[in-house]
TrEMBL record:
Protein name (record): GCN5-related N-acetyltransferase
Signal sequence region: none
Native source organism of the sequence: Ktedonobacter racemifer DSM 44963
InterPro entries: Acyl_CoA_acyltransferase, GNAT_dom, YpeA/RimI_acetyltransf
PROSITE patterns hit by this protein: GNAT (PS51186)
CDD domains: NAT_SF
Amino acid sequence: MSTHPDYRRKGLARSLILHALYRLRERGVTHVSISTAERNRRARPLYEKLGFQLVKTLPRYRKQT
């Protein structure tokens, strides 16, 4: 998910995630996971406020060019 810079810090991402979680719960989904790049440090506080917790980080591999 990405939010246009003009609309960040207004609760839009939070609202979208909460709505998605509500709809998933309606359908009987009991487990949800979120993946994000480790460098995306702005997202982590949002996810934690919504009840998600960091389970693990994965190393980043990049092919040398």
